Structures
1.
Amino acid sequence: MTVQRIDVTHPADLSAADVARWGELRDRTAPVANPFMSPEFCRAVGSVRPGARVAVVRQNGEPAGFFPFERGRWGRGRAIGLGVSDCQGAVMRPGVTLDPHALLRASALSVWEFNHLEGGQDLFLPFATGRFASPVVELADGYAAYETRLRAGSRTFLKSARAQERRLAREVGPLRFVFDDRNPAVLHTLMAWKSAQYRRTGRRDRFAQEWISGLVRTLAGTDAPGCAGLLSVLYAGERPVAAHFGLRSRTVLSYWFPAYDRDFATFSPGRLLVLRVIAAAADAGIVLLDLGRGDAPYKDSLKTGDLTVHEGAVVLRARPGAALHWLSREPSGAVRRFVRERPRLKTAAVRTLHSVGRIRDRDRDRDRDR
C-alpha cells in the first residue's frame, strides 16, 4: 500500500537528496528540460521572494514530486517567479496520482495562478483558461541545418543581418561575440538598457522591482547542469552594443532579457546578437532555444516551431483568497482576452503603449532639466 504525505518547506531548506531527486525526476520526465523548472531557479526565487515554498510529495517516505509556488496573503498562490518565469508547473514521478485541490489545501493555498504552464502538466491543464504559442528554434541538427532552413524561409532577414554586421564592423570597430561573459558591469549595462526599453514602450519596468533585479544577479552566479545564468554580449571594438541574459540547462536555452544600446539602433544590433547566440548555443549542445511567449516580428522570422503554454488558476472556491483572486484577476483577464482576440484592438493597444512611453520619457527629461 502506498502511503502519501505532502510536506511544505522553504526552497532553501530542501535537502541535498531532495534537490538531486528533483533533478532526476525532471531529466526522466522532460529530456528537453526548461531551466525555469529546476530546483536552482526555485531556490534563486526563494532568496528574493519571502513567500516562496515547495510542496514535496512523498510516497512511502521517498520524494515523488515537487510543486514550487509563492504564497501571499489570504493564501493566494502563484507560480514560482510569476512575472518572469517562462515555464511553470510541478515535477512529478510518472504514475503519481494527486488531487490538485488536495495539493492546494496541503500547501495552505486558496488559489494557484499560472501564466506559462508547460504542456503535459495534466494535473493543472483542466484549469487552463487560455493557451498561447511560445516560439522556439530547434537546433538538434546543428546550426548549419538551421541556417539552411532560415535562408529558405527568411532569406531577407539573414541577408540584411549579414550586411548590417559588415557595416557595424566597418563604421564602429571589429565585432567580437562572447557567449558566456562573466563581467558584472556588462550585466548592469544590459539591465539599464532593458529598463529604458520598458519605459520607452510604455511597459512596466521589471528591473525597477528589486526582487527581479536581485533574482537576475543571483542567477548570474548560478552554474548548475539544470540551470545556469548566461550573459552573452556582442562588442563592436571594445564597446558592448547588444547583450542578452538568459538561463540554460543541458539542452534548453531560454531567451529571456535581450537589449541593445540605442546609439547603434540603425545597425539592428538585437538581430545580430540573436543570430550569434543561436549559433553558439548549437555549438554548446543546446537543442532548443525558447524565444518565449509574446509577439515580435523577429521571433516569427527565426522560429522553427512553437510550444504551447497555458494560463489559468486552480481555485478553492470556499476560501476568501479565491474570492480576492476572482475580483482582482478575472475582469482584467477578460479584457486582455477580448483585446487579444481582435487584431485591430490589439494593434491600437500597442500603439497607445508606445505613445505613453514617449510621454513618460519626455516628462522625465523635462524634470531632469529643471
Note: DSSP finds eleven helices and 14 strands in the chain.
2.
Amino acid sequence: MIQAIYLQSVSKTYKTYAHGWERLREILTQHPCAQQFHALHPLTLHIPHGQVVGIVGNNGAGKSTLLKIVAGTLTCDIGGECTVSGRVAALLELGSGFHPEMSGRENVYLSGTMMGLSIEEVDKVYDDIVAFADIKDFMEQPVKTYSSGMFMRLAFAVATNVDPEILIIDEALSVGDGTFARKSFDRIMQFRDAKKTILFCSHSLYQVEKICDRVIWLDKGQLMMDGEPSKVLTAYNETLNAKIISPDPLKQTQSHLPSDKTARITHIETSTEDQNGDNLNLQCGKSNLMIDVDFIYDPTLQPPVIAVTIVRKDGLLVSSASTHNDGQSIASNSAGKGKVRLIFKEIPLLKGNYIVEVFVICEKAIHLYDQNLSVASLTVSQEGIEQGVVTMPHQWII
C-alpha cells in the first residue's frame, strides 16, 4: 500500500561553531571543530492517505524541522528516506515562499507554479483565492506592505485552493482576525471530510484532539509517543511545565454585538451558596460551585459552545465540562446574546488551590472564539486526611 508520507530513518543534524573562525580552521586543517546539534533524531514514520495527524511538543522539539522535511523545504541527513505521494501545500513560516517585492497577484502565480500548477490552472482558481483571502484591493501591491494578517490570509488561500492531497499546517492559524480563523477552520474540516492527508502542528491540545485521528509527540528531536489522540495527549499533558496563573477576573461588559463571525464573553460570575466573587473558599463534598457566563455572538452564526475547566495552580488540568460534550444545545437568539450556568454540586475536589477557566468555542467545538484563563481562585478545604486531587465515590465490602 502506497503511503501518503513515508519516512525511514529520517534525521536532521546541524553544525554549530563557538566562533566564526573555527569554520575556516576546520576547512584548512580537516579537523572537526563543530558541535553537533540533533534537531531531529532518526525517525521512521508512515502516514496513510486520508489521515489527520497532529504533532505536539514544546518549542525546540523538532516539530517544524519534521514538517519542513515533509514539505520539501529542508533536506534530511544522508541515509534517511522521505517519500511524499501527492501534491503538498504547506503553511510553515508566515508568508514563506512569497517574494516581498512582488505583488500579491504575482505571488499567487509564483506559489501556484511552485506547487506544480500550470498558469492556466492558476487562472481557474485565482478568483477563489482572492475571494477567500478577502484582500482584493491589495492584490496589486507588493506583499512587503502587507500586515501579518494579510500575509496569512493570502498564504492560506493559496495553499487550500490548489487542491492539494497533503496539507501541512504549522501554527499558522494563530495569525489573523476572528472571521479569518473561523473560515480557516471550516476549510480544514472540509479537507478532513474530503479525506485529505493533514499534518496539523499546534500548541492547542484541544484543537489537536478534536481534529486529529492520530497524534505524534516529539521531544528534543525524538519520538516520544505515536498513537490515539487521547492517550498521547494525556501523556504529553502530564509532562508540561507547571504554569503560573495570577487571578485577574473578567470585569468588563461589552455592549456591542460582534459582527465578524465571532463570539465574546461579556461577564462571568462565580459563587457558592453563601459567597460571591473571584476568591472562594469551598468545602470538599459540601460546597456547590456555580459559574454564570454571559456572552454575545454574531447572530448569523449558530450559538456557540461554552466550556469550563478547573486547573490546579501548578498547571494540572483537573476537570472540564462543556455544553457540547454534555449534549446541551444553547437556543438561538436573534439578538445574539446568551447566558448559561454551570453547577458543580458538592464539589469533590480535595484540599488545595485551583483556578476556574472559561472558554467560548464554535458550535462544532473546534475554533476558540474567546477565553478567560483566570476567572476565579478556589481554596478548598476538607475533613480528614484523604490524599489526591478528588474524592471518588467508593464502597468498602469486608
Note: The domain at 263-381 is CATH 2.70.50.60 (Coagulation Factor XIII; Chain A, domain 1).
3.
Amino acid sequence: MSGAAPPFIERRSPRDPRIDIMRGAALIMIYVDHIPLNTLSRLTMRQYGFADAAELFVLLAGFSAMIAFGRAFERGGPRHGIWQTTYRASVIYLTQAGLLLATLGVVTVWRFYLPIGHPLFSPVIPEAYADVTRGLALMALPDYLDILPLYVVLLTCFPLVYYGMRRRPVVTLTVSGLLWLLAWTQPWLNLPNMMDVTGRGWSFAPLSWQFLFVIGAALAVTLGPAGSLLPQPRWAAVLCWVYLAWAYVLHRWADVLQSWDDIIDAGLLDKTHLAPLRLLDVLALVYLLLGSRRVLAWSRHAILRPLEACGRHSLAIYALGSMMALFGRLEFGSFGPTAPMQVGVNLAGLAVMPLVALALDRRKERRRAR
C-alpha cells in the first residue's frame, strides 16, 4: 500500500448503512446502560457476552475515521487532513466540557429541590472549583462522561494511523497490538483520573483502546466500497459463532460455572485495559455482521433509517443521550426505578434520540439543496 493513494477512500460513497446502523444501535445501548437498574439493559450487548456497546462504538469510530478523515488527507494533503482531525478533536473536547458543566449545573439544581435517595443513582461529579478545572483539563473524569476524552486522544493521533495504514498496514497493526498488550500487562500505563478512587486512571486507557480503533481503521481498508462483504470462510464463521456462544453461556450462568471468578481475577474481562476476552467478543460479532449477505440486505430496510440517522450524527446523539441518561438516573434516584418510571425514561430516550437524528438529517439535506 505504498506509492499511489489507497483507492478505498475515493470509492467509498455513499456511506455504508451497516456502519451507521451499528453505531446508532451502540448509542441507544449506551443510553440504556448508563441508567443503573434499568430493566431494558437486559437486552443490551453486555448481557449476552463479554463486550458491551463501548467496544462496538470505538471499533466503528476507527472505521468511520479512516473513511472520513482519510478522504480529507487524500484530497487536501497532510495539512488539510491534520486540520480536519484537529478541528474534530476540538469539537469533541468542547462537547465534553459542555457535558461536564451541564451535568454539574443540573445536579446542583436537582439536589436543591429533590433528594437523591440511593447513592447508586447519584452522579459522581466534580463539585469544587479545582475539580471542575481538572475536569476541563481531562484529569478528573466523572462516571458516564469518560469516553469522549478517549476520542480526543485517538483523533489527535489519527494522522499516524492513516499514514501507517496507507504505507505499512501490517506493521501498524502489529505495533498497535504490542502497545495494547503492554498496557494490558502493565496497568499503570494509563492517564490519571483524580476522580477514580481506585487509582486506575481513565476508564478507557488510551494505550489499550487505541488497538480497537486501529483495527476499525484496518477494517475500513479491508472491506472496500460501501456494501462490500468481508471474506468469510465457513470455518472462520463457525469459530466466531462458537466463541460468542461460549461467551453467552459463561456470562448467563456465571454462578453455576465456577470459572467466572477465575476469569475476572486473571484480568481477562478488565474493561479499562480492553482485556482479551472483550476484544475477541466484539471482533467476532463485527466480523459476522460485516460478512453476512443477510445483514447487508436488512441494512437497506426503511425501518432502520432512524438508527442509521443516529449513527450519522453520533456526537450530537451521544451528547443528547448523555443528558437524557443523567435525568433518568436522577429520576430513578429521587422517585425510584418503578415500572412507570422505567417506561417513561426508556420511551423518552428511544423516541427523542432517533427523532432528533432524523431532524438533523433533514436540516443537512436542506443545506445541500441550497
Note: Residues 263 and 269 are 7 Å apart (CA to CA).
4.
Amino acid sequence: MPPPSHPGPSDLGAVFKAYDIRGLVPDQLDEPMVRAIGAAFAWFVRQQTEADRVVIGRDMRESGTTFARAFGAGVRSEGIGVVDAGMISTDLLYFASGKLDLPGAMFTASHNPARYNGIKLCLPGARPIGEETGLREIRRRAEELLAGDRSEVQQGTGNEPVEKVDLLDDFAAHVHSFVDVASLRPLRIVADTANGMGGLVAPKVLGSLPFHLELLYGELDGNFPNHPADPIQAENLVDLQRRIVETGADVGLAFDGDADRVFLVDEKTVPLSGSLTTAIVAAALLDEHPGETILYNLICSKAVPEIVAEHGGTAIRTRVGHSFIKAEMLKTGAIFGGEHSGHYYFRDNYRADSGIIAALVVLAVMSKAAVPLSELRRPFERYSDSGEINSEVGDASAVMGRVQEHYATRGARFDHLDGLTVDLGSWWFNLRPSNTEPLLRANVEAPDEGSCRRHTDEVLALVRDIGARRDSEPHEGDDHDGT
C-alpha cells in the first residue's frame, strides 16, 4: 500500500526558524513531517559525525510522546540508533549530548502556548545547529523525502525497542559542581515552574541543598492550566510575586516551559533583567577564575562590560543568538556568556545554556554576601533600559539606513555587528530585524528611567514614521516579497 499523502514540502518553511523548528500542532507540524525531519537529521548527522546514535528528549507537551517516537522512527530508518532520555528540560538534553558525546533532539516549544511544539537540534558535545550550521540542509533533505514517494523513510510503528537513559541525578550533580555547596546558607525560595519542566528539574537540583523550596504549579501539564510558561511577560510573574510576599521568601525563580531559562525575582518582588543576572554571574565567576573572558550580546546593558573589567576579566560583545554565542565561546575559550533574553552559557557546561546553573550561582553569591537580593543587586544595576519593543516595517534595512542618516548629524557612533547600534555617549540603542517577521526590534538604554522613556519615545517615533512613509510610497529596489 502506498504511503499516505501529505501536504507539500513548502509547509516546512513555516516551521524552520533561525535556531530551531517550531509550529502549531497539527496545522503546521504533524507526525509525517516529524518522521521526515528525523530521517533528514540522521542523514545530516552521518555527513557531519561518526555518531551511531541520537539522544532524544521531550518536554511535557501532549504531542511530545508521539512526535519523539515518529522522529525516532525517521532516525532509525537511516540506520542510526536512538537513546530515549524521556521527559527532560532542554538544558538536560544539552547535558546528555555533551556527556554521551551524541547528537541530540529536544521536543519543545519553549514558552509558546500549548498548541505549539518544536525541535531543538544539536551535534555531539551540544554543538549548536542553526540556520547557518545545518538547519537549511536538514530542511532541504526533509523536503525531498516529503515530496517523493517516501520509500526512503521506512514506516516504523514507533514502538521498536530503544535504549533508555535517565540522567537527572547526573545533571543535578553537574549543576552543583558550579558552586561550593558547603558554603550555601539556608534561603527560602519560591519557584514558579508554570507546569513546565522546571517542576521536574528544580526539586532534584535544589531540593538536596540547604534551601527551603516551595513549588508553584509543579505538576507537569503541557496545557499550562495556571498561566503561560513565559516569565519574560510581567503578567506571568504575578502569582510568584504574591507568594514571595506571603511567605517572606528570599528569592523567586520563574521558569519557562522547557526550563532552560530561569528569571530571578528579589524579596521585594522586583525581577532581575537578563543583563543584571549576567553581570552578577560574570563577577562571581571572575572572582573565582581571574582573567577569564566573558561574552555578552549587544543588547545587554553596558554595565556588563564595565563590571567584567572591574573584576579583571575581558569582555567580548557578540551578536544575539545561541549559535553566535557558542561559536564565539569555542573560539575565545570564554568561561561564560550571557544574553539579555535570559540565556546563560557556561564553558564547563559544554558551552550550552542553563538557567538553573545561573540561578544557583546567584544563590551562592547571596549566601556569601548575606544580604538581601534587593541590596546585592544595586552595584550591578547602573542604567535603565526599555526592554525589547517591536515595530512593524516594510523594509527594515531601508529604515535602519534612514535612522543612521538622522543620527549621523548628531555625532553618533555606529556599528552593524547585529542590525544597527547607535551610540550617543550618554545613551544608546539597537535596531535588529526579525528573522521571521516584518519587524524591527528596538532596545534603548539610558542613565535613568526618565531619560530612557524620552529616548525610547524618540527612537520609536522615528522608526515608525520612516516605516510608515516607506510603506505608503513606492521605492525603486524595494523588496515586495514580504521576506
Note: The chain is about 35% helix and 20% strand.
